[in-house]
Amino acid sequence: MNKLELISALKNEAGISKSEAARVVQIFFDSMAEAMAQGQRVEIRGLCSFFVKNYKSYVGRNPKTGEKVTIKPKRLPFFKAGKELKERVDY
């Protein structure tokens, strides 16, 4: 399912216009992204959680040249499926 399919499902299920459904979906995604940008955890009970993982700086290698390269510290988003979602997918 992609974003347009999600908007269509919301439109049909809630009985609202496509533009209203698109706005709701956009507000939802923007709110999640903003919370994660601030380092907050986003949890949707029974479905999943999104959180930011912090990585320290480390020394890596350029695969072509074998040269050592310092990798800067970074923060990356992660997704963790909830128990109910795991059970639903696995039947």
Entry summary:
With 91 residues, the chain is of the alpha+beta class. The protein has one domain (3-90): IHF-like DNA-binding proteins (HU Protein, Chain A), CATH 4.10.520.
Task: Report what the structure shows.
This protein is an alpha+beta fold and 91 residues long. It has a single domain (3-90), classed as IHF-like DNA-binding proteins (HU Protein, Chain A, Irregular), CATH 4.10.520. Helix content is 44%, strand content 30%. Strand 1 (42-44) and strand 2 form a beta hairpin.
Can you lay out the helices and strands and say which pair or pack?
Layout (H helix, E strand, L loop, with lengths): L2 H12 L3 H20 L4 E3 L3 E8 L2 E4 L6 E4 L2 E8 L1 H8 L1
Antiparallel strand pairs: 1-2, 2-5, 3-4
Helix pairs in contact: 1-2
Shape descriptor reads elongated
The counted number of beta strands is 5
CATH class: Few Secondary Structures
Estimated radius of gyration: 19 Å
* CATH superfamily label: IHF-like DNA-binding proteins
CATH architecture: Irregular
User: What percent of the residues sit in helical stretches (DSSP H or I)?
Assistant: 40-55%
